[in-house]
């Protein structure tokens, strides 16, 4: 399953004096089982792009094709699940069961299967179903609420998952957990992941492809090495390269024999250890 | 999107003689206009009132489309008012009758007049908010209500509440749009099915909206208290509204409108 954007533009309140262009001439093609990170400063159009990719909003100009189909006004694609930014703000259910079952019920999953689906989704997000299923979602902590919101999308079982800043406002443990979930979803369930973030560091270790947005335009698109090489372009659009990559780069500037390819902590460690220990990694 | 639909009289940022007028002059003029609408009793009067509205719109340089967009919803009410008046006015010659429903010639005229009156009423009021920023509007309102504080009328508080309410309308509409999208992403259908189904479909929209509104209200209250807000006492102003000759002139024109409408009653 593929999503394809051709010269897609989007403006809010198009045709009024309040018109605010958000995206301009975006060409983007996302293939099956890819893990694409979409990176940009706040206001760069990331969230708008997420909604466009999910077929929730229609481009003002250009075309969007989801699995070969044009999205229609008011329509949705069950195969594309979008986890909004701060998804815990959409919770409404009296119980966590009702909340997680909401999407699946809307898509007409038979009643006898729902319980099974909800239990699975809650397990997947690390909330033991027997403890949580009857509680009110409003009694949970912020991080747990977010897990419930993600579980409610997982219950729909979409082929493509779009996550809009899934780690925003979480502590280190919460972040780690989300990153592991993203990894599992792609590797074990074969899902396509589109991960929206403003944090380079976070996406560097998982993403095989990074798309950089700036002021509503796509300025870079490629593998992490390629993207992080364009340091000036990134800095100009308010983004940073990951710290391990910065360290390696500075050592290289001093003439140390390191490869510029190191981006993650692990890769930087390997490079530096190889340089210091002559290849002997402890 | 709701935000795009529900722009009833959201401030329209352009330059025009009407935009430049003092908010107090515009509020008073709107009041006079509304009262005058109930003075007129014949077509000459309505024609005059419609002309005044159109002239105001033209001077305010608002595109007709912007004014019209805000009026669409009111038009339904206006038509409804018209239809009700058609059948509940029994004077005049009967044109058509079905059991208790009676349609008379005067009833039709009366209905049209009532619908027109409602439409002009809201249309003129929407000009006020289209050409005045919420801040100017509430400052003006506070200034006009201030004399009433002698009898312990909380003029400042009412003005502050109004300005907060106006300020948050677009924010909450934006929030509502986002919630609609988020629930649609979970497969929710919002405008389909029977009446009961539609009411049920509102729950996933309304609960998050209210939760968010309460959260926002609490945050705002805390932020205001942290900045030592204690109501209007001893509060000074950065931008003071200025009354100019043009504002007096504008009001004199409206006084003439009252005179004209009274004279037209006799025709």
Labels describing this entry:
heterodimer, A: 282 residues, alpha/beta, Rossmann fold, six-stranded mixed sheet, three-stranded antiparallel sheet, 11 helices, globular, B: 267 residues, mainly alpha, 2 domains, two-stranded antiparallel ribbon, 10 helices, 71% helix, 3% strand
Summarize the structure.
The complex is a heterodimer of chains A (282) and B (267). Chain A is 39% helix and 21% strand.
How many structural domains of chain A?
A: 2
Strand content range of chain A: 15-25%
Q: Strand order, biggest sheet of chain A?
A: 5-6-7-3-8-9
CATH topology of the largest domain in chain A: Rossmann fold
What class would the helix/strand composition of chain B place it in? Answer: mainly alpha
**Largest sheet entry of chain A:** 6 strands, mixed
What is the makeup of the main sheet of chain B? Answer: 2 strands, antiparallel
Report, as a whole number of angstroms, the end-to-end distance of chain A. Answer: 43 Å
Approximate helicity band of chain A:
25-40%
Q: Could you explain the architecture of this structure?
A:
The complex is a heterodimer of chains A (282) and B (267). Chain A has 282 residues and is an alpha/beta fold. Chain A folds into 2 domains: 3-237, P-loop containing nucleotide triphosphate hydrolases (Rossmann fold); 242-282, no CATH class. Chain A has 11 helices and 9 strands. Chain A has helices spanning 46-53, 96-106, 111-124, 129-132, 142-154, 172-189, 200-204, 224-229, 231-236, 243-253, 265-277, and strands spanning 3-12, 20-30, 35-40, 61-66, 80-83, 160-164, 192-197, 209-214, 217-222. In chain A, a hairpin with a 7-residue loop joins strand 1 and strand 2 (20-30). The termini of chain A are far apart. Chain B folds into 2 domains: 1-132 and 242-267, no CATH class; 154-235, no CATH class. In chain B, 71% of the residues lie in helices and 3% in strands. Chain B has 267 residues and is mainly α. In chain B, helix 5 runs antiparallel to helix 6. Chain B has a two-stranded antiparallel ribbon. The radius of gyration of chain B is 23 Å and the shape is globular. Chain B has 10 helices and 2 strands, in the order H-H-H-H-H-E-E-H-H-H-H-H. The longest helix of chain B has 32 residues, at 195-226. In chain B, a hairpin with a 2-residue loop joins strand 1 and strand 2 (101-104). Chains A and B meet through helix 2 of A and helix 8 and helix 9 of B.
């Amino acid at each position: 399953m593929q999503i394809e954007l051709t010269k897609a533009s989007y403006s809010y309140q198009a045709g009024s004096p309040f018109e605010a262009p958000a995206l301009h001439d975006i060409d983007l093609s996302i293939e099956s089982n890819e893990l694409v990170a979409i990176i940009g400063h706040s206001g760069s159009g990331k969230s708008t792009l997420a909604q466009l990719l999910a077929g929730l909003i229609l481009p003002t100009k250009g075309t969007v094709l989801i699995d070969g189909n044009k999205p229609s006004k008011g329509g949705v694609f069950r195969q594309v699940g979008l986890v909004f930014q701060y998804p815990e703000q959409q919770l409404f259910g009296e119980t966590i069961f009702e909340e997680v079952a909401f999407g699946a019920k809307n898509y007409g999953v038979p009643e006898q299967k729902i319980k099974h689906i909800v239990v699975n989704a809650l397990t997947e997000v690390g909330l033991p179903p027997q403890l949580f299923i009857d509680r009110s979602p409003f009694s949970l902590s912020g991080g747990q609420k977010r897990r419930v919101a993600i579980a409610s999308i997982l219950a729909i079982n979409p082929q493509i998952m779009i996550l809009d800043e899934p780690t925003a406002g979480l502590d280190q443990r919460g972040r780690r957990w989300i990153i592991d979930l993203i990894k599992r979803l792609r590797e074990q369930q074969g899902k396509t992941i589109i991960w929206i973030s403003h944090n380079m560091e976070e996406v560097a270790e998982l993403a095989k492809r990074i798309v950089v947005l700036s002021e509503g335009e796509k300025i870079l698109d490629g593998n992490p090495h390629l993207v992080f090489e364009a340091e000036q372009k990134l800095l100009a659009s308010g983004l940073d390269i990951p710290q391990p990559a910065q360290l390696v780069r500075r050592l290289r500037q001093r003439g140390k024999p390191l490869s510029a390819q190191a981006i993650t902590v692990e890769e930087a460690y390997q490079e530096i250890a190889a340089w210091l220990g002559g290849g002997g990694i402890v | 999107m709701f935000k795009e639909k529900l722009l009833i009289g959201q401030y329209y940022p352009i330059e025009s003689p009407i935009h430049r007028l003092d908010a107090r002059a515009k509020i008073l003029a709107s009041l006079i206009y509304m009262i005058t609408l109930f003075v007129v009793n014949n077509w000459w009067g309505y024609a005059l009132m419609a002309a005044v509205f159109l002239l105001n719109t033209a001077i305010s340089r608002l595109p007709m489309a912007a004014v019209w967009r805000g009026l669409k919803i009111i038009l339904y009410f206006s038509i409804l008012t018209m239809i009700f008046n058609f059948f509940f006015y029994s004077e005049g010659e009967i044109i058509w009758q079905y059991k208790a429903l009676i349609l008379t010639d005067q009833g039709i005229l009366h209905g049209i007049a009532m619908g027109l009156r409602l439409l002009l009423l809201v249309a003129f009021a929407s000009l006020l908010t289209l050409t005045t920023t919420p801040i100017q509007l509430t400052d003006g309102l506070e200034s006009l209500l201030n004399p009433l504080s002698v009898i312990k009328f909380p003029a400042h508080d009412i003005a502050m509440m109004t300005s907060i309410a106006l300020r948050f309308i677009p924010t909450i509409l934006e929030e509502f749009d986002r919630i609609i999208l988020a629930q649609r992403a979970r497969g929710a259908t919002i405008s389909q099915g029977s009446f009961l189904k539609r009411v049920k479909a509102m729950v996933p929209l309304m609960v998050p909206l209210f939760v968010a509104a309460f959260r926002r209200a609490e945050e705002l209250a805390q932020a205001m208290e942290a900045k030592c807000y204690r109501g209007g006492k001893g509060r000074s102003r950065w931008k003071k509204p200025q009354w100019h000759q043009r504002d007096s002139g504008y009001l004199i024109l409206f006084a003439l409108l009252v005179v004209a409408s009274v004279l037209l009653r006799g025709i």
